[in-house]
Amino acid sequence: MNPKEYKYTREHEWICLEPGNTGKTGLTKYAETQLGDIVYLDLPAPGTQVEQFEKMGEIESVKAVSDFFAPASGKVVEINAKAIDEPKLVNEDPYGVGWLVRLELSKPSELDALMSSDAYDKYVESLSQEGSE
Amino acid sequence: MHLLKKTALSKVHHGLKARMGDFAGWELPMWFTSILEEHKAVRSRAGVFDVSDMGRGWVSGRKAGQFLEKVLTRSVRRLKIGSSRLCLLCLEGGGILDDLWVYHVGVDQYLLVWNAGNTERKLGWLFRWSESDPDVTFKNATDDTAMVAVQGPAVCQLGSMKAISNLPRFGHARAKIDKFEVFAARTGYTGEDGFELISSTADASPLWGFLMGQGVKPCGLGARDILRLEAGMLLSGQDMDASTNPFEADLAWLVEFDKRDFVGKTSLLEIRRRGVARKLVGFKTKGREIARSGYSIFKSGQKVGTVTSGGYSPAVGVSIGLGYVPVELSTVGTEIQILIRDKLVSAQIVNRRFYKKGGFNEPEGIQIHTGA
Question: What is the pLDDT along chain B (372 residues), one digit of tens a residue?
Fold first, then answer.
């Protein structure tokens, strides 16, 4: 299940607002399942400024490589070193220990433009229906 | 509308919720649970693959052997009944149309197994040379049969494989696995021991279920691609094609220049005399980024070649691959770079047998051959 309190992008990233205007980001369960075994993460160095919906990293699975887009604008304050060492954590727990980047948000209101978990569930459902036709 | 061809096991794959994908026009499982788990199953125990996409056909008639001698790069004259060998199908100019297995099944009777993809062109070419001869007949059996590969060090320990576990390497026979009649060959494309089994389409699903019941893990093309790459095996249409010759592709061992005349011989002799400018090599990267098919190979800031196959190797722990480079850069140990999106990643040319089994029929015991 996709956590209720998170917000989601059409490119299958999530962001979870934290106290003090920071946000933790990661890849959704759907994206993780699509990619399969993740073996390499290329994440931005702390201090990097990112813009909403712009590419901030790359995720490589055995089968494919996928861009990781910023769900919101801000400054990278932390990246998940544990996940970089052990990328399979992203497969195992994409909403928990498999988080990717912590951002200090410069425009928190941008989150209003993202999908709620209900909206994201429906979005994913529409994608899988397309795929099965 | 373009529809993918389905194998006799299509329903089984969907039932197992496999991730399906397009391979040379066939809808096949990319993975069932995880590529890495499936890779591990084959390296440590046993896995089963649907390889029904591979073409199968019978060549028979009084001049069947003579015909194969003419179109293939290796002689089949000394190929005993019950044995098989890998051969190339080359164009007159020496380009590789495909690699295929020839199984000598009986007097004037051969089974050919070729790669999926470009089938019309390959068969058209092959039978351009037989058409006029009433003593050679060909029957394409691809759609009337199914084919699975059961691979891994524990395959011969399965009770159901007892009947065929005495087959020598490359040997084959008609056999019974449980209640299923199959053509079984001790061949494969993973670098492990195992069999390839051809059954009727009706038996395909129950045979697959029976093997799963024996603890054999369903495996997809993702694992198959890594396994063959680790074993240094080329993929036809990707690592070699009509624009490459056997000397460039490091497949000179599949060309026999004996007395017989065969299609492409004159050109291949000339290519051998002249020498080639580029050569297929194996490489491994130093970083953790993955080199994939189509990426450029660099040396001293210049593009010198292209990756034809690449991927993450669990056995080596980094990305490995195959690609063509100028002959002067093809020596093992040569440092190169691979352009992985916008980064030049260091890599080294190594022996392309990245993975070596401890020995035939030995369980586990993974040895890493770096060639360094």
Answer: 568 999 999 999 999 999 999 999 999 999 999 999 999 999 999 999 999 999 999 999 999 999 999 999 999 988 999 999 999 999 999 999 999 999 999 999 999 999 998 888 888 888 787 777 789 998 999 999 999 999 999 999 999 998 899 999 999 999 999 999 999 999 999 999 999 999 999 999 999 999 999 999 999 999 999 999 999 999 999 999 999 999 999 999 999 999 999 999 999 999 999 999 999 999 999 988 999 999 999 999 999 999 999 999 998 888 999 999 999 999 999 999 999 988 999 999 999 999 987 433 333 333 334 333
B215 and B204, same domain (yes or no): yes
What residue has token string 């993918």? B4
Nearest to A40 among B35, B289, B341 (CB): B289
CB spacing of B289 vs A42 below 8 angstroms: yes
CATH of residue B46's domain is: 3.30.1360.120
Three-state DSSP class for B328?
Answer: helix
Please state, as a whole number, how many other Cβ atoms lie within 10 Å of the Cβ of residue B220.
Answer: 28
If you measure CA to CA, which chain B residue comes closest to A66? B341
- Say if the ipTM goes beyond 0.90: no
Instruction: Provide the CATH topology of domain A12-105.
Output: OB fold (Dihydrolipoamide Acetyltransferase, E2P) (2.40.50)
Contact B36 A62 (CB under 8 A): yes
CB contacts, 8 Å: B35 with chain A: 36-37, 62-63
According to the 3-state scheme, what is the secondary structure of B52-108? CCCEEEEEECCCHHHHHHHHECCCCCCCCCCCEEEEEEECCCCCEEEEEEEEEEECC
How many whole angstroms separate alpha carbon B268 and alpha carbon B91?
Answer: 10
| Residues of chain B with C-beta less than 8 angstroms from the C-beta of A62 | 35-36, 222, 226, 311-312
Distance from CA of B37 to the nearest CA of A (A): 9
Nearest CA in chain B to A88: B36
